[in-house]
Design a protein that fits this description.
The complex is a heterodimer of chains A (270) and B (182). With 270 residues, chain A is α+β, with helices and mostly antiparallel strands. Helix content of chain A is 24%, strand content 32%. In chain A, a hairpin with a 5-residue loop joins strand 5 and strand 6. The chains are: A alpha+beta (270), B mainly alpha (182).
C-alpha cells in the first residue's frame, strides 16, 4: 500500500466518522469536574510519595477499582469463602501450585493474552526471573517476573485464563535492599463469580513472609518465594480501600501498615 | 485576581493542571467515547484527570505528550474495566470525528462511500480498529500510540500496516450496492 493509498484511506475514514459537538470543556459538568479536582489534596494516595522517591518508570497497570466503577455493579457479590457465596472455595492460606499447572497457566497466558496484546514472548517467559504460582480453592494464580516486565495470570473455576495486570521496568533487587517492597501487580479482575483483587510483588532480601490485611482486619497469607510474592482475595467492586501489607523479616521483626495502593504507585525502597 | 489555591497545593501546579484540563478535555472525552458507552465516558474522564492531578509531576510538560499520557491512562482504565467485564472480545470502536474537522454537505456518492467504510470498519477486529483510531483520529505518532498500547513502536507499525490492509480488503470485498449500479 503506497503512502497515497494510506492517506486516501485515512481521509475516507475521517469522512465516514460521526462528528461531535465542539467545546465540551466549557459545559457545566466539565467545569464542575475541574473545580472539584483542584480541591482534592494532591498529597492523597498516589501523590503521598515524596518526589525524591518517585520512580520515573512507566507503570502501565492501574488499580481497577475506579475503572470498574464505570461499568456498573457486579452481579455477584464476592465473599471471603464459605457457603454459597462466590469464590466459596477460596482460602486465606494458599497452597502451592503444581509445577505442571504453573507451566501450563503461564504458557497459556503468554500465548493467549500477553503476546497478542503486549508483544511479550514465550522466550521471555522461558527466561523469566521468577514464575510464582499459588492455588486457593478452585483457582490458580501466578505472576511472571522478567527483567523487562511483570504480569499476573489467573485461572478461574471454569478454567478460563485471565490476565490480571502488567507492569514494565521493575526495580532491581539492589534497589529493594533488605526490607523494601514493590507492588508489581495491583488490579481488580472480574470473573463469572464477581470481582477479585489480585496482587503481586518483589521483596527485599530479608522479607520472608507477607500478610495482606484487609480493611476489616482479616488477614490473607501471601505466597512468598525467593523475594517474590503473590496473593488475591474476593473483593466487591465498591469495596473500601485501605488494604495494607505486613512484611515479616528474617530476624523476626515486622514492617506493618504499608498501604497496598501506595506501593503500587511507587515501591517502598530500603 | 485569582482564587487562593487549596491548602497544600502549590499555585503553579494548579495553573498547570487547569491549562492541561482546558486543552485536553475534549480530546480525552472523545478518546473515551470512541471506546466505551457515552454514559460511562465522563466517569472515566474524571478518573483520568484525577490521576493526572495526583501525578502531575509525571505528566509530560509538552501538551502533545501530555495528551498521549492521558490517553495511555484512559486506555488502561478502560482495558481493566473491559477485562473485568469479560467484554474484551466484544468491544468495537466507534468512529467519532473531532469538532472542526471538515465534513458536511457530502454528495450522495460520498454517502455511499461512508456506508461502505462503516461496514468495512465493523468487520475489523477491535485490535485493528484500535491502531487505526490512534493514528487516524487521535493523531498520535507511532511511538506515542505504541506507548498507549504498551507495545514497541515496531510492533505498532506492523499492526497498523496490517490493519490498513485488512480495511482495504474489506472495502473491496463488500458486495456492490444494487442501488448504485441500477
Amino acid at each position: 500500500m503506497s503512502s497515497n493509498d494510506r492517506r486516501d484511506l485515512d481521509l475516507q475514514l475521517r469522512a465516514a466518522a460521526t462528528p461531535v459537538a465542539p467545546g465540551r470543556v466549557r459545559q457545566t459538568s466539565a467545569q464542575a469536574l475541574l473545580e472539584h479536582i483542584v480541591t482534592v489534596p494532591r498529597t492523597a494516595e498516589g501523590a503521598a510519595v515524596p518526589a525524591a522517591r518517585r520512580s520515573h518508570r512507566t507503570r502501565w497497570a492501574l488499580a481497577g477499582a475506579a475503572a470498574v466503577a464505570v461499568t456498573g455493579a457486579a452481579l455477584v457479590v464476592p465473599g471471603l469463602g464459605g457457603g454459597d457465596q462466590a469464590y466459596a472455595s477460596w482460602t486465606a492460606t494458599p497452597a502451592a501450585l503444581a509445577t505442571g499447572d504453573t507451566r501450563e497457566l503461564s504458557q497459556e497466558c503468554v500465548r493467549e493474552k500477553l503476546q497478542p496484546q503486549y508483544g511479550y514472548t514465550p522466550a521471555e517467559l522461558a527466561a523469566a526471573k521468577m514464575v510464582l504460582g499459588e492455588r486457593r480453592g478452585d483457582y490458580s494464580y501466578l505472576s511472571i517476573a522478567t527483567p523487562r516486565w511483570t504480569a499476573t495470570c489467573f485461572r478461574d473455576k471454569a478454567g478460563d485464563v485471565h490476565q490480571g495486570s502488567i507492569m514494565e521496568a521493575p526495580v532491581t533487587d539492589a534497589a529493594l535492599g533488605r526490607k523494601g517492597v514493590e507492588m508489581q501487580g495491583w488490579s481488580q479482575l472480574k470473573t463469572s463469580e464477581g470481582y477479585a483483587r489480585l496482587m503481586s510483588g518483589h521483596l527485599g532480601s530479608e522479607v520472608v513472609a507477607v500478610d495482606v490485611v484487609l480493611p476489616g482486619g482479616k488477614k490473607v497469607q501471601a505466597t512468598v518465594k525467593d523475594r517474590y510474592f503473590v496473593a488475591w482475595y474476593p473483593e466487591a467492586v465498591d469495596a473500601p480501600g485501605g488494604t495494607t501489607l505486613t512484611l515479616r523479616l528474617a530476624d523476626g521483626s515486622t514492617v506493618a501498615g504499608l498501604a497496598a495502593r501506595d506501593l503500587h504507585e511507587a515501591p517502598e525502597l530500603d | 485576581m485569582t482564587a487562593d489555591p487549596p491548602t497544600g497545593t502549590e499555585p503553579a501546579a494548579e495553573v498547570a493542571f487547569r491549562a492541561l484540563f482546558e486543552a485536553a478535555y475534549d480530546d480525552l472525552l472523545l478518546f473515551v467515547e470512541r471506546r466505551t458507552h457515552a454514559l460511562a465516558a465522563e466517569d472515566v474522564v474524571a478518573e483520568v484527570f484525577l490521576t493526572a492531578w495526583r501525578r502531575l509531576d509525571d505528566v509530560p510538560p509538552d501538551l502533545d505528550q501530555a495528551r498521549a499520557w492521558l490517553f495511555t491512562v484512559a486506555h488502561h482504565l478502560l482495558r481493566n474495566s473491559r477485562r473485568s467485564d469479560h467484554r474484551q472480545q466484544a468491544v468495537a470502536l466507534r468512529i467519532l470525528r473531532e469538532p472542526g474537522a471538515t465534513d458536511s454537505g457530502a454528495p450522495p456518492d460520498d454517502v455511499a462511500a461512508r456506508l461502505d467504510l462503516t461496514r468495512a470498519w465493523a468487520r475489523l477486529s477491535p485490535g485493528d480498529q484500535q491502531v487505526l483510531t490512534l493514528t487516524v483520529f487521535e493523531d498520535l505518532t507511532g511511538p506515542q500510540a505504541a506507548r498507549v498500547l504498551g507495545i514497541s513502536a515496531t510492533a505498532f507499525s506492523l499492526r497498523l500496516l496490517r490493519a490498513r490492509r485488512r480495511l482495504r480488503k474489506h472495502l473491496t470485498a463488500l458486495p456492490t450496492d444494487p442501488g448504485a449500479t441500477a
